[in-house]
Design goal:
Layout (H helix, E strand, L loop, with lengths): L4 H11 L3 H15 L1 H4 L7 H16 L4 H15 L9 H15 L6 H28 L4 E12 L2 E8 L10 E5 L8 E4 L10 E6 L5 H8 L6 E4 L15 E7 L3 H12 L6 E8 L8 H10 L3 E7 L11 H7 L7 E5 L2 H13 L7 E2 L12
Parallel strand pairs: 7-8, 7-10, 8-9, 10-11
Antiparallel strand pairs: 1-2, 1-6, 2-5, 3-4, 3-6
Helix pairs in contact: 1-7, 2-4, 2-6, 5-7, 6-7
Bound molecules: 1,4-dihydronicotinamide adenine dinucleotide.
1,4-dihydronicotinamide adenine dinucleotide (NAI) binds next to helix 9, strand 8 and helix 12.
Organism: Streptosporangium sandarakinum
EC number: 1.14.12.17
Protein name: nitric oxide dioxygenase
Length: 375
């Protein structure tokens, strides 16, 4: 079966401006026609809605890159095993998706679009079902993680150490998704703050954010001995993305987590890269991992750490991490990794480009389907 990329893009451009409406309509149809499928989704659907359109956008934009799309869909399928998605659900999803798009592009939708999308959807479903089946041979849909450590580092930041019940095959820089018993079917993403270890444990840095259901449960209502569910590891942030041996890491708040994992990994590399870490916090008291960072500095002689405090007065204060980088007159000649809030990542990346860093050398986690992890 061949894909009519032109028809898919053309029809996509009609529904994109009404994405919110189409997504709402899609879920309304799906749940009305298939009440059992509703049970797979969380009570509040806000984040889920954004993800659906984000994922489809990724596919539509990259249709020529067959291998890339297959890999992306494979990852999506492995991740969806934790929701309980099964092969028999796919036809209903496809049917409702096309119906919602047709309704959204009311009046200008052509019958040929139906055929183009049906063919594309069949292919998407086939790739996803195959990938999920293959994954089921070696991996559970989700891991049960026992919390073996829970340290309150500030009144609202906890560092959790979690022991998965099966080998957890992640790479430094990746993130996991977490569900707590308090919020069934609600999953949130958290970067893993360590490189893989022999004891199979992972460390998460979690700030309880106001209104953050999962983050508040993890920080305030979780104790050693409790269990949580972990989805499969995801994300592409990796030292392998670097093409140079001088790395600049720019972290904001708990955005430190994945960069710390990369630093840990680099300690074991035969040729350690030189790393400048610019770490931004709002208040000095928010620097929740100073001791561990100092330990890493002892092990990694080519690691330099500059801390910036943005929201407090005082000598050397009043700076974000990127301000500090400019203040120290470091013009990155190598690769730069940026992790923090979406706003911070965007502002920092723009400033790096203005400083002359090629966009291809700026590495961030943000992709449309995988928003920077939030609580
Ligand atoms: N892979 C990733 O990129 C990860 C991202 N995160 C995200 O990092 C964020 C951390 O939040 P918090 O710990 O509450 O710290 P925060 O975002 O409140 O502040 C941390 C630092 O970022 C700076 N900052 C905030 N907004 C900025 C902006 N628009 N431009 C420049 N600098 C800005 C602050 O001044 C401060 O120095 C969360 O949004 C979390 O989701 C967390 C883990 C991993």
């Amino acid at each position: 079966m061949t894909l009519d990329i032109r028809l898919i893009r053309e029809s996509w451009s009609l529904v994109e401006p009404v994405a919110d409406q189409v997504t709402l309509d899609f879920y309304s149809r799906l749940f009305a026609e298939n009440p059992r499928i509703r049970e797979l989704f969380p009570p509040a659907m806000d984040l889920q809605r954004d993800r659906l359109f984000g994922a489809l956008t990724q596919v539509v934009l990259n249709l020529e890159d067959t291998e890339g799309v297959r890999e992306y869909l494979g990852q999506l399928a492995r991740d969806h095993r934790k929701y309980g998605v099964r092969p028999e659900h796919y036809p209903a999803l496809g049917h409702c998706l096309i119906a919602a798009m047709r309704a959204g592009a009311h009046g200008v939708w052509q019958p040929a679009y139906d055929q183009a999308w049906a063919a594309a959807y069949d292919l998407i479903a086939e790739v996803m079902i195959q990938a999920a089946d293959q994954d089921a041979v070696t991996a559970p849909p989700a891991w049960i993680g026992t919390v073996v450590g829970h340290e309150m580092r500030t009144p609202d930041i906890a560092v959790l150490t979690v022991e998965p019940n099966h080998p957890y095959p992640f790479r430094a820089g990746q993130y996991t998704t977490v569900q707590t018993a308090l919020w069934p079917r609600v999953w949130r993403a958290y970067s893993i703050a360590n490189a893989p270890r022999h004891d199979n444990r992972i460390v998460l840095h979690v700030r309880a954010i106001p209104g953050g259901w999962v983050s508040t449960a993890l920080v305030k209502h979780t104790r050693p001995g409790d269990t949580i569910l972990l989805g499969p590891p995801r994300g592409t942030l990796s030292l392998e993305q670097a093409t140079t041996s001088h790395l600049v890491f720019i972290a904001g708040g708990t955005g430190l987590a994945p960069l710390k994992a990369l630093i840990e990994e680099s300690v074991w590399m035969p040729e350690r890269p030189a790393i400048d870490l610019f770490y931004g916090v709002r208040r000095a008291a928010d620097a929740y991992d100073t001791e561990a960072l100092n330990n890493l500095r002892m092990q990694h002689r080519r690691l330099r750490i500059v801390q910036a405090v943005s929201d407090e007065p005082g000598p050397g204060y009043g700076q974000t991490a990127i301000d500090a980088l400019e203040y120290h007159r470091i013009i990155p000649s190598g690769d730069v990794f940026v992790c923090g809030s979406q706003q911070m990542v965007r502002v920092t990346s723009d400033r790096l480009v203005r400083l002359g860093v090629p966009a291809g050398r700026i590495h961030t986690e943000y992709t449309p389907d995988a928003p920077v992890p939030v609580g």
